[in-house]
Design brief:
Elements: H1 3-11, E1 20-23, H2 27-43, E2 48-51, H3 54-62, E3 76-81, E4 85-86, E5 92-93, H4 100-108, E6 110-118, E7 131-135, H5 140-149, E8 154-156, E9 172-176, H6 184-192, E10 197-200, E11 202-203, E12 209-214, E13 218-223
Parallel strand pairs: 1-2, 1-3, 3-6, 6-12
Antiparallel strand pairs: 4-5, 5-11, 7-9, 7-10, 8-9, 12-13
Helix pairs in contact: 1-2
The structure holds ribulose-5-phosphate.
The site of ribulose-5-phosphate has 18 residues, from helix 2 and helix 4.
Organism: Vagococcus hydrophili
Pathway: Carbohydrate degradation; pentose phosphate pathway; D-ribose 5-phosphate from D-ribulose 5-phosphate (non-oxidative stage): step 1/1
GO molecular function: ribose-5-phosphate isomerase activity
Length: 226
């Protein structure tokens, strides 16, 4: 079986009747949402979903999953989401699908955060995957200059027609081609303090469980202790 599908199905086992579930975004999370939809249809599972992007909202609505916004719930029991890179200390880069802002907000209010990935996402150090930074359009060229001056190799993410890609919140994404992030916590703190930066894709100390699909050993589940 496709490794993304394997972990998507496995992760849906963590979803129990009555839970409020954060529904992640991307090609791996897609299979988790499909499996929750199947369990609702075939097993009578009843949950409330909190989606992390317009794309997931569309998929979940089509499956008939009842949805609430993050502001309508007092907490989220578990959020299940993909990731672009996970380091050996279980920090991550997210935002390859440009949904990092809502993903980080939903994960922040979740009791548990489960990441589902195929083995290609597991790395020793973060940074080979370009780090997405969501910025407001106003002043974004100034941020590009600032990132350039720091040697962060920034590129505004663009659509096929050359226009900047707009996130669900109508912001831009600047991808930082860093190759290796020596100190993710220092970089996250610095980015948190730059005017015009809305959010960045460093998700540190957020995952409580990581489910990895491997071709030789099947599904591996790691409970992260911090
Ligand atoms: O952070 C994300 C979207 O913003 C995704 O979770 C991440 O890009 C992984 O996606 P995929 O499962 O398609 O590889």
């Amino acid at each position: 079986m496709n490794l993304k599908k394997m972990v998507g199905i496995e992760s849906a086992k963590y979803v129990k009747d009555g839970m409020t579930v954060g529904l992640g975004t991307g090609s791996t999370a897609f299979f988790m949402v499909e499996e929750i939809g199947r369990r609702m249809r075939e097993e009578g599972l009843s949950i409330t979903g909190v989606t992390t992007s317009n794309a997931t909202e569309k998929q979940a609505s089509e499956l008939g999953i009842p949805l609430k916004s993050i502001d309508e719930v007092d907490h989220v029991d578990v959020t299940i989401d993909g990731a672009d890179e996970i380091s050996n200390d279980y920090h991550g880069i997210k935002g390859g699908g440009a949904a990092l802002l809502f993903e980080k907000i939903v994960a922040t209010y979740s009791n548990k955060t489960i990441w589902i990935v195929d083995e290609s996402k597991m790395v020793e150090h973060l940074g080979a995957f370009p780090l997405p930074v969501e910025v407001i359009p106003y002043g974004s060229d100034q941020l590009v200059r600032l990132f350039n001056s720091k040697g962060y190799n920034p590129k505004i993410r663009r659509q096929d027609n050359g226009n900047p890609l707009l996130t669900d919140s109508k912001n831009y994404i600047i991808d930082l081609y860093l190759e290796k992030i020596e100190n993710p916590k220092d970089l996250a703190t610095w980015l948190d303090h730059q005017v015009g930066v809305v959010e960045h894709g460093l998700f540190l100390d957020m995952a409580t469980t990581v489910i990895i699909g491997t071709s030789d050993k099947g599904v591996q589940t790691i409970e992260v202790s911090r």
